[in-house]
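seq as requested:
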Amino acid sequence: MSFRSIFIALIMAFALVLGAFLIQRARPRGEVDQPNAAFVRATKQVCRMAVGANGFVLHAWADFHGLAGTLFENVVSGAPPFAPLLLPNLAILGLIGIVAKLRER
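C-alpha cells:
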C-alpha cells in the first residue's frame, strides 16, 4: 500500500468525522439532550439480542457449509447453532427487569 492511498484514507476519515461534528452542532437542542439511564440499558440489551441473532446465523451457515459429509455430522462436531442464542435470552430477561423497575416508579 502506498503512502498516497493511506493519505487519502486519512483525509476521508477526517472529513467524515468533521461532517458528523458539524451535523451534530446543527441539530435542535431537544434532540441533543442526553437520554435517561433506562433507555441506555434497553439499547444495550437490544444490541445484545442482535449479536446473538447474528451469531446464530453464522453458526448455522457454518454447519450447512461445513467440511463433514453430512449436515448431522456438521451440527454434532461443528459450531453449535443454538449457543449464541443465550445472549438474546439474557437480553430479554434484562429488558423485563428494566420494565419492572420503571413500573415501580
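Residues 34-105 form one domain.
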